[in-house]
Amino acid sequence: MPLSSIDVSSIHLTRHTMPTLLEQLTALKIIPVIAIKNADDVVALGKALVENGMPSAEITFRTPAAAEAIRQLRVAFPNMIICAGTVLTKMQVDQAMEAGADFIVSPGFNPRIVQYCQQRGIPIIPGINTPSLVEEAMELGINVLKFFPAELSGGIAMLKALSAVYPVSFMPTGGVNPNNVKDYLALPRVFACGGTWMVPSNLIDNQEWDKIGALAKEAMTAL
User: CA torsion sign, 12 to 96 to 46 to 86?
Assistant: First the structure.
């Protein structure tokens, strides 16, 4: 389904069910991964993304502005799919939920964080890059996983190997770019990719929203 045919107003439906979330992310194809330094920039950034066919954002907890950025984005764009990325602690889970995040993404597989999200009723897509970590995730009932760092962990060849063995779905992130994103998305077990190329930090810092919008549109048009 081309993104242009998706009714964005209907995307943000049942927040805390993984099957619905998986359907929504599968329709979106690309999730922009954003490290934002100034939360007050996020509404203009969100507008550039939404208006160019990319109504989603992963706001990473790599900066102190993350929780406030999620809050402002949620208020401005109630139907946008917003996740909290690089979540490492229970406190960050709490902050993300209170700010209005739809789900949590972690770079690695921390059973305590996974179980805490399950207890709190918010979906989590934890990061894995080995067979053993996939099995640990499955043991806790998690079958939607982030493959990170994708390119450094064997890329498409590794994903093919994992997909042949495990009945799980993957979101590759880390090294995904315009040159390889189609190849990743062509894999049957890959439902979406995370990427930073359409939201580079220098353009955010310089408030170059038109350029970010153009990059987002280019990415979606290419798919």
Answer: negative
- To the query of whether residue 58 is one of the catalytic residues in this protein, the response is yes
What is the 3-state secondary structure of 39-107?
HHHHHHHHHHHHCCCCCEEEEECCCCCHHHHHHHHHHHCCCCEEEEECCCCHHHHHHHHHHCCCEEECC
C-alpha 212 chain-centroid distance: 17
Q: Give the global pTM.
A: 0.92
pLDDT tens, 6-47?
343 333 333 458 889 999 999 999 999 999 999 999 999 999
81, 91, 157, 163, 186 from 32: Cα distances, Å: 11, 24, 23, 24, 19
Structural element, H or E, at residue 28: helix 18-28
Neighbours of 144 (CB within 10 A): 20
DSSP SS3 for 200: coil
Q: Which position among 51, 98, 135, 146 bears the catalytic label?
A: 146
Among candidate residues 58, 160, 182, 218, the one labeled active-site is 58
Token output for 121: 């009723």
